[in-house]
């Protein structure tokens, strides 16, 4: 069966009958609760006795959920005040942003809007744990890339990496950390056994087992000018022609124009 996010947009796929599965199926409820508990564990909230404000980016209107509810498209950004959340979790949701369900949808812009607004609404030092089902390695890299561009540090934690059914991926992000954040160890990495039926409709791909830890550290060096970024011979000839039209004194073009010179010692 094709993955849910490639069958139809979420507002169409999760119709009355499909949504009922998540509200009435004891098996799905148990699995979703187990994943949520793991996300909360990875969130690593401090046990200081102070109440915390948490954001759950999930489908909640169909259940008797405590707390304030906000109905919105996460691809258009989260309409929350800066720094108000002490943590955030999301279960089986963010991979939907990698698809264009409408002609106006651009996955990269939607990912940018989502991660940017998520970063802004979290308190500095807070974590976000986003469980997701990637269709391939490219989708995982896309999610990580836009999270890092928004300012997060972190990476992907995989539970049961060698099980095609029980495997679960969590994007663990820390807000406002300049250095690379350490990640907790995924379950099953030390040979621990797992149940083979711990799976919902995600059916996660088994080809993204190489996981890294990332930070937003960027080099201050300017990129080297070359043909790949549009500044090759053709670019140089166009610039010289523009200068000639402005009446400037420009050297004549030869076969050596635009050729890289050898380094002299």
Automatic annotation (TrEMBL):
InterPro entries reported in the protein's UniProt record: Bud23-like (IPR039769), Bud23_C (IPR022238), SAM-dependent_MTases_sf (IPR029063)
Protein name as annotated: 18S rRNA (guanine(1575)-N(7))-methyltransferase Bud23 C-terminal domain-containing protein
Any one biological process term the GO annotation gives: rRNA (guanine-N7)-methylation
PANTHER family named in the record: 18S RRNA (GUANINE-N(7))-METHYLTRANSFERASE-RELATED (PTHR12734:SF0), METHYLTRANSFERASE-RELATED (PTHR12734)
Gene Ontology CC terms, in alphabetical order: nucleolus
Start-end of Basic residues biased regions: 218-230
Residue ranges, compositional bias (Basic and acidic residues): 231-240
Record keywords, A-Z: Methyltransferase, S-adenosyl-L-methionine, Transferase
UniProt-recorded Gene Ontology molecular function terms: rRNA (guanine) methyltransferase activity
Flavoprotein among keywords: no
Organism of derivation: Aegilops tauschii subsp. strangulata
């Amino acid at each position: 069966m094709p993955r849910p996010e490639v069958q139809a947009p979420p507002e169409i796929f999760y119709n009355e009958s499909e949504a009922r599965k998540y509200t009435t199926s004891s098996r799905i409820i148990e699995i979703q609760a187990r994943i949520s508990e793991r996300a909360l564990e990875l969130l690593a909230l401090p046990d200081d006795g102070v109440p915390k404000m948490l954001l759950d980016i999930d489908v909640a209107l169909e259940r008797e959920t405590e707390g304030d509810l906000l109905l919105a498209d996460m691809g258009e950004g989260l309409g929350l005040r800066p720094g108000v959340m002490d943590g955030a979790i999301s279960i089986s949701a963010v991979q939907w942003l990698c698809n264009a369900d409408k002609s106006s949808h651009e996955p990269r812009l939607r990912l940018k809007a989502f991660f940017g607004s998520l970063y802004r609404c979290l308190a500095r030092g807070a974590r976000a744990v986003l469980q997701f089902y990637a269709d391939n390695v490219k989708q995982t890299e896309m999610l990580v890339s836009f999270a890092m561009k928004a300012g997060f540090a972190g990476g992907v934690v995989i539970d049961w990496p060698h099980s095609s059914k029980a495997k679960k991926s969590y994007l663990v992000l820390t807000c406002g950390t300049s250095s690379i954040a350490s990640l907790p160890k995924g379950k099953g990495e030390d040979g621990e056994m797992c149940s083979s039926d711990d799976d919902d409709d995600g059916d996660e791909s088994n080809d993204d087992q190489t996981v890294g830890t990332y930070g937003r550290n960027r080099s201050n060096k300017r990129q080297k000018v070359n043909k790949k970024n549009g500044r090759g011979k053709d670019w140089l000839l166009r610039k010289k022609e523009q200068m000639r039209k402005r009446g400037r004194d420009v050297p004549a073009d030869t076969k050596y124009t635009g050729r890289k010179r050898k380094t002299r010692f």
